[in-house]
Amino acid sequence: MKQSQAEIQAIQEKLRAIQANRTAGRNPLPAMVEMTPNTANPSKTATTTNSTTATAPRPQRQTQQPQLDQLEQTQLDSAQLAAVVEQLQQQTAYLRQFQAPLQGRSSQSTSTQPTPKATPERQVAQVLQRLERQAQHINDLSAAQEAAILEWKAIAEQLERDRKAAELEDAFLGGADSSRICEYLTTAVPYIERDEDGSYVMTARSVDLFKAEREASAMAQTLRHRSGSSAAANSKARGGTLQKRRASQSSDLESWGRFIWQQISAFAKTLSTPKKHPSLKTTRSRQSQAAVQPAVPEFSLQDAAMWVLGSVIVRVALDLFLVANPGMWLPVIAVIAAPAAIAVYRVTVAPESGLVWGYRLFLIMIGLLLGGRL
Q: Which of 78, 213, 232, 285 is the most buried (most CB within 10 A)?
C-alpha cells in the first residue's frame, strides 16, 4: 500500500509539472496579440499592419508549430499518466478491500484480549520468582568468586616456586628474602539455600583452598593401594606356582632318589654276591692265588654302563635338589667331589686296584658331565 501511494504521489507531481509546462507554452500567444490593439493612428496602424503582415506572419507560424507539437505530446503524456493513475487507484482500492478486514480482526483481537488483573496472589508469585532468580544469581557469583580465589592461589604458588628457584640460583650472593608472598587463611563466600520449610537462608560457605592437594594425595594413595594389592596378588600367585613347582620337584627328587638307591643297592648286591665255581679244584686254586696276591676287582662293559648311568641320574637329582633348595649348594658340591675322593683313597690304600678305580672315576665324571647337560 505504501509503495502504491508513493507511486501515485510521483505521478501527481509529474502531472503538475506537465501542467506548468503547458501554461508556460501558452503565455507567448497573448504577448503577440497585445501588439494589435493600438487604433489611435490609423496611418500608423495601417503602416504597422502592413509591416506586420509583411514581416510577422512567418515567425508566428514558425513558433506556433513546435508549441502545438509540444502541446500534443503533453496531452498524450497526460492521457497515459491518467490511465496509469486510474490503474493504480483501482489496485489500491482492491488492496484496501483486504486490508480493512485484517485491520478489523487485529483490532478485534486486541480488544478481545483480556487484561490480567493484578491480584495480590499474582503479585506475591512474581515477587517470589524475582527472589529466587536473585538468590540463584548470588550463588553463581559466589561460585565465580571461589573459582577466582583458587586461580589466584595457583598463581601465587607458581610465583613461590619461581622465587625459590631464583633464590637457589642466587644463594651465593646472600641477602635473599625468605618471607612468603602469600598467606592463606580461612575464607568464605556468601551462599543462599533453602531449609526444610522452604525459607531462604543466607549463609557463608567456606572455600577449601587445599582441596586439589588432598585430592591428588588421595588419588596417589589409591593408586599405591591398587598397585600393592596387584603386587600382593601376583606374589601370591607366584608363591603358589613356586610351591607347586617345589612340590613337584621334591616328588621328582624323591622318585629319582629311590631309583638311584635301588640301582646302587642292586649294584652292591651284585658286587657282594660271590660267583659260582664249577668245581672245587678251581675254587681251591683261586683261593690259593688270592692268598698269594690280593684280589683285583674285575671291570666289564656292564659295570661301565652302570657307573655312567648312575652318575647321570645322581647329577640330574642333584640339579633338581639345588633348584628346590638353593642354599644347599655346598652338600651338592661335596657329593659331586665324593667319587674323586673315594678314588684317591682306594689308590692310596690298594694301589693294585688303582687302574679299575681310575676307569670308574673316569666313567663317573663322564656321567656327571652328561647329567649336567640334560
A: 78
Cα dihedral angle (236, 241, 242, 248), rounded to 10 degrees? 150
Full-prediction pTM beyond 0.70? no
Q: What are phi and psi of 260, to 5 degrees?
A: -65, -40
Q: For residue 198, is it left (φ>0), alpha (ψ between -120 and 50) or beta? A: left
Sign of torsion, CA 115 119 122 128?
Answer: positive
- Contact indicator for 359, 343 with CB cutoff of 8 Å: no
pLDDT higher than 50, residue 45: no
- Which three three-digit cell numbers place residue 295? 684280589
Q: Kindly list the distances between the CA atom of residue 18 and the CA atoms of 8, 28, 70, 89, in Å, as whole numbers in the listed order.
A: 15, 17, 11, 20
Grid look-up 638311584 returns 260
Question: What residues contact residue 25 under an 8 Å CB cut-off, 6+ apart?
Answer: 67, 70, 71, 74
Distance CA 329, CA 333 (A): 6
Instruction: Tell me the pLDDT tens digit for each residue of 197-227.
Output: 888 898 888 888 888 788 888 888 888 888 7
260-291 residue pLDDT tens? 666 666 655 665 554 444 444 455 555 544 44
Task: Spell out the SS3 assignment of 276-316.
Answer: CCCCHHHHHHHHHHHHHCCCCCCCCHHHHHHHHHHHHHHHH
